[in-house]
Amino acid sequence: MTWIRGGPVALDSRNITEAIDSSLRRLGVDYIDLYQIHWPDRYVPMFGETDYDPSRQYASIPMEEQLEALGKGVESGKIFSCAPRY
């Protein structure tokens, strides 16, 4: 995922938590009003592509893990609301 700062290998719980904490530090705030994931960790047609190509599918982090990490951010008070864009 080279389009994400530092190009993490996966959008797993550890990387989501690290991204939340880094955002808080960069912004100099105690919580984030809305945290949104624009790039889910799964194959989707991007950048003008309109057709899904099943041959490009790869092993990905389960959506449940990603949502659980966002939920922990909300529970800990670091995020007021989250909205994954799937």
Automatic annotation (TrEMBL):
UniProt-listed Pfam families: Aldo_ket_red
| Identification of the protein by name | NADP-dependent oxidoreductase domain-containing protein
Q: Where is the NADP-dependent oxidoreductase domain?
A: 5-79
Q: What is the lineage of its organism?
A: Eukaryota, Viridiplantae, Streptophyta, Embryophyta, Tracheophyta
Under InterPro entries, the record lists: NAD(P)_OxRdtase_dom_sf, NADP_OxRdtase_dom
